[in-house]
Every structure is written in structure tokens, then in C-alpha cells.
Amino acid sequence: MTDEAGPWLVVGLGNPGREYAGNRHNVGFMVADLLAQRVGAKFGRHRRAVAEVAEGRLGFGGPRLVLVKPLTYMNLSGGPVAALSQFYKVVPGQVVAVHDELDIGYGQLRVKVGGGEGGHNGLRSMTKSLGTKDYVRVRFGIGRPPGRQDPADFVLSDFSAVERKELEFLVDRAADVVESVMTRGVEPTQNLYHGA
Fold first, then answer.
1. Is 15 a known ligand-binding residue?
2. 135 labelled as ligand-binding?
3. What's the pTM value of the predicted model, to 2 decimals?
4. What is the DSSP string of 105-157?
5. Which residues of the chain, if any, have pLDDT below 70?
6. What's the CATH number for 8-193?
7. Where are the domains positioned within the chain?
8. Would you state the pLDDT for residue 2?
9. What pLDDT sits at residue 1?
10. Is 46 a catalytic residue?
11. Which of 25, 46, 99, 120 is the catalytic position?
12. Enzyme class, one word (predicted)?
């Protein structure tokens, strides 16, 4: 299931800067921040990539993980991810992208390996830079925009007041999903969380 020697590269996709912090598009950063808290790691600028990185281990003797927040803006996320996957010698099957997903309802979580990018610029950039689609995606449902709102505007807007009531719980659950992928594998995680 896992290569015991190599760490997992967990990439929270988002845009750097305070003005984007609460955006739907930044839910990957939110999950990465929570995972860093859980493993007692602090983010710092990496010397080999335009990214913030936090390193830790899941529990005593658990898998090593490298948490990544690219600082290049969403559509250029792949460059730092590819650089870090080479630096840490991480195989594509142990790269996990955590990202917002328009095609599933708010708060639903889905896990898959490979597949299309569904118009997501962060995933498109990662696929191009890694040279493969065969990395793990943890998809955090944000649903479709209301009415005729442009999806590009929707993802760059903050979660609504109603959504924010549940957001902390859902980010916590998404972090659980990422941990499950690392400790149980993709298929058992799908079985565990897709029905919920």
C-alpha cells in the first residue's frame, strides 16, 4: 500500500495572501493548516520551492508527511509540487492534492486516484508538472454557484454564513480523510467515507 521509506506529500491547494484566506478555493490550505496542527508542525518557507512546508509524522511510528502550501497562486501550483516531490523522493501514488470541487455538493468528500481535472487550474498545473494524473485527490465539495454566478467568481468568494457554521467540522473531517488515505489506503477510505 505505501512505500515505508518515502513520506507522503500532502498538497493543500489555494492562493496565498490574506485576501484569499476565506475563499472556497482555499479549502485545501485550511485542511493543510489543520493537519499541521495535528502533527505539531509549523509551516516555513522551503529553500527549493516557492511553497510553505511543514514536516511531521502521523502518530507514534506512523507515516511521515510533508504538508505543502504552494505560494505561486493556484494556476502555477504544479511547479512547487513537482520540485518538492523530487526533493523528498515521493512517488506519485503518495502525492495527495486536497482541493475544492464544484461538481459535488457542499461538504461532501470524495477520494480518487487520477481522472480529469474538471476545469480546476490547480489540478491541471499539478498534472502537467508531475507528468502524470496518478496522484490522489481529496475532493471537498463546494457545490455549484447559485443562479448565473460565474464559477470563477464563486470559487474566489468566501464561504457563506450558513456554510461557515459547518466549515470547521467539514475541514476536520477532510483532515481525517487525508489521514485515512495515508494509514488505510485509498479504497478502504472510499468505503469508509463515501457513504457519509
1. no
2. no
3. 0.95
4. -TT-EEEEES---TT-HHHHHHHHHHT-S-SEEEEEE--PPSTT--HHHHHTS
5. 1-5, 195-196
6. 3.40.50.1470
7. 8-193
8. 44
9. 43
10. no
11. 25
12. hydrolase
